[in-house]
Structure of cyclin-dependent kinase:
Amino acid sequence: MMNIKDFDIQFELGSGTYSTVYYGKNNKTGEVVALKEMKEFRENCGFAQTTARELKILQQLKHQNIVRLYGVTTSEKYCKGEGNIFLIFEYMPHDLQSLLYSTSTTSLLSVGQLKGYMKQLLIGIRYLHSIGIVHRDLKPSNLLINNEGYLKIADFGLARPITYRECNYNVITLNYRPPELLLGCTLYGSEIDMWSIGCIIFECFIKRPPFQATTEAETLSQIYSICGSPNPNIASQYKFWKNLMPNQFYPNRLNDFLNQCQCNQNLSILLQNLLNVNPLERFSADKALHSSFFTSYPFPFFPWQMVKFQSTLETHIISMSPATPIDSPPLIQFV
């Protein structure tokens, strides 16, 4: 385990309910790092269960498109009931959310650059799924970007091994949550991440998420009206189907919706295969990477071709959004 004395913690970068992130330097190497302080209850100097799960997964991951965990340490008084756990990450100066919506950067994001970022996202997710891990919280603010042109997936607080045993349906930020989870599905795998990626790719090029609502019921209503009704033979098995099933049959008009948003044909084909209301019919990460969207002009940029952005120290390098507790009550509104 690393020693907290090995790091010069200089200032806070951001704070949330369950964690605070600091900008710091390794005193021995001079390397800039991000120190994520976990605020949590624990017993007998042990790590809380949620942090232990996150650590176990992070320690398995070694990929250029996944944020690197250097190690873990605790404050000096941790075993006296004071202080907290620190996760030490590589420093990433930007996140995709900030680049998409900052007036100083959004105009610099060419189609080739955005394609390059999305290709890296899919390569990282393909690796993650290949080793049996589902992320369960993909969104632009959890995709970090450095000045070498690399996009890296971060925030594994909700990640889980793919077991196809019952899991919590109340995961993934609402705008990126697939319909089966909104309907209470508890048996799922990598396909839930692929819906989120479809939402992210749409947002990159249209500059807004495809579905924006404040409740689960409203989000489902938007999904039905655009993507069509799910297959009742499958969806009828979901917990909230009787309460939240569509009140009529909705045809799939996603192609028309994407045309209205001025998506070109290659982008439209990819999104129609990712934003599919029937989870078993969604593209895998590998299929998405082989779609015509990534093999057509303008081609995805390589990292060395990416426009570099000036570092902003206020960027939240590790997502501050609190992870949804595993046994949290449903937020669903019954209609």
In short: The chain has a mean pLDDT of 87. The CA atoms of residues 118 and 201 lie 7 Å apart.
